[in-house]
Amino acid sequence: MTGTELLIIFGILIAALCFTLVVIKGRLQGMRHEAKRADLIRHLLEKAQEQNEIFDLNAEERPNSKGMAGTLTKILPAMLELEILSYVSRELEGSSVEVYFRALLPEGPAFFKFRAIVQQVRGSYEKSVMLLTMPKDIDAGQKRHFIRVKPPKDLVRVIGVWELDLNKPMPRSTAEIGKPLLHYKTGMEGEPVQVADISATGMALRFPAESVDVKPVDLDKGSQLLCLLIYQVSKEERMVTFWCTCDVLNTRMQKEPSPAMILGTEFSNWAVLEQGKSDINWFHSTPKSGVSPITQWMMQIDIQQRKLTG
Q1: What pLDDT, in 10s, does the model give residues 33-72?
Q2: Residue extents of the structural domains in the chain
Q3: Tens digit of pLDDT for each residue in 125-155?
Q4: Which of 71, 80, 82, 220 is 20 to 30 A from residue 125's alpha carbon, by CA?
Q5: Cα R_g (the chain), whole angstroms
Q6: pLDDT tens digits, one per residue of 174-202
Q7: Can you tell me the distance from the alpha carbon of 205 to that of 263, in angstroms, rounded to the nearest whole number?
C-alpha cells in the first residue's frame, strides 16, 4: 500500500470520525433541549396545580364530551391525573383531547394548551378521575372564555343586596353587616331580586319594576354592591355561603316578559363562609382569573343543562 493510499484511508477515517462526532453532538444537544422542554412543561403544570387552576378539556372526536373541566391532582413521570367535575364515560379512553389551562407567572397570567391521549377513566356520578399522557409540547393558548348560565331558581336559596359605602372598609364579619337593601329567600312571596345569569367573573341581577320607567335600585356605572348568595351545589343539598363585592358595569330596563331592571356586575372581591363561622376572609377577583367556587358551580350547571337538552 502506497503512502498516497494510506493518506486517503486516513482521510476517510478522519471524515467518518468527524461525522460521528457531529451526529453525537447533535443528539446530545437534542436530548438537552428535550430535557429543558420537559422541565419547562413540568414547571408550568406544577404552577397551575399549586394555583388550583381549572383545566378545560375538549375531545373533538366525541362531540358529547366537549366542555369538560377539572383540576390537576397528580403529575406522574409519564402521565397526568386530573379530577373531572362531572361523570366521564370510559368510551373516551384512547381518544385525543385538547387541554387549555392558565398559570400565574411572575410576569403575569399566561394561557397554554396541549394535546394528550386519554389513558384511563375512572368515572363516578359527580366526579371522575382521568389519566392523560404527559404532553411533549405546550403551546401558548387563548384566554379561556368563561361560560355564563342562568342558574335554576331552586338552587339559589338566598340572595341579599347591599349598597357598599366606599368610605368604609369592607366588612370582616357578618356582625358588621346591617339589613339588606333587597333580599330574596326560597318560599317568600314575590321576587324582589333574582340572579338573571352568572359566570366566573360576574353576574346579572334582575329587579322587577312596576314600570320600565321606575328603577327599583338607583345605581350608576362604577357603583359598588355587597351581595350574598347561598346556593346548592350537589344532590346532597350541600350549601355554599358566598359573599362578594361587585362593580356595576351597566343597567338596562327590560319590558318582556315583565318590566324589570337588569344590573350587570363584575366580581371584585369574594369569600366563602365556613359553616357556623361569621368571619369573612376576602379574596380579590379579576376578569382574567374569575372566582373558582363559582367556576365549578357553573360547570356543574352547564353539564346538567346540556344533559337535559341533549
Answers
A1: 666 788 889 999 998 888 777 788 888 666 555 567 788 9
A2: 49-140, 148-309
A3: 667 899 999 998 888 765 555 677 888 888 9
A4: 80
A5: 28
A6: 999 999 988 899 888 778 889 988 988 89
A7: 5
pLDDT band of residue 28 (cuts 50, 70, 90) is very low
Q: In 3D, which of 240, 260, 243 has the Cα closest to residue 251?
A: 260
On whether the 148-309 domain is CATH 2.40.10.220, my answer is yes
Give the Cα-Cα-Cα angle 264, 268, 269 (nearest 5 degrees).
Answer: 130
Whether 264 and 279 have beta carbons less than 8 Å apart is answered as: no
> Residue 286, Cβ neighbours under 10 Å: how many?
12
Angle subtended at Cα 255 by Cα 253 and Cα 259, rounded to the nearest 5 degrees: 80
Q: pLDDT tens digit string along 154-167?
A: 899 999 999 888 78
Instruction: Give the CA count within 13 Å in the CB-facing half-sphere of 220.
Output: 0
Contact 111, 142 (CB under 8 A): yes
- Of residues 212 and 167, the one with the higher pLDDT is 167
- Measured at the CA of 172, the angle between CA 170 and CA 173, to 5 degrees, comes to 125
Distance separating alpha carbons of residues 169 and 82, to the nearest angstrom: 39
Say if residue 307's pLDDT is above 70: no
- Amino acid found at 153: K
Other Cβ atoms within 10 Å of 193 Cβ, number: 21
Contacting residues for 60 by C-beta, under 8 A, at least 6 apart: 66, 96, 98
Amino acid identity, position 159 = I
Looking up cell 390537576, which residue turns up?
72
What nine digits make up the cell of 50? 399549586
Residue 175 CB-half CA count within 13 A: 3
Please state which CATH number belongs to domain 49-140. 2.30.110.10
User: What DSSP string describes 28-91?
Assistant: HHHHHHHHHHHHHHHHHHHHHHHTTPEEEEE-TT-GGGEEEEEEEEEE-SSEEEEEESS---GG
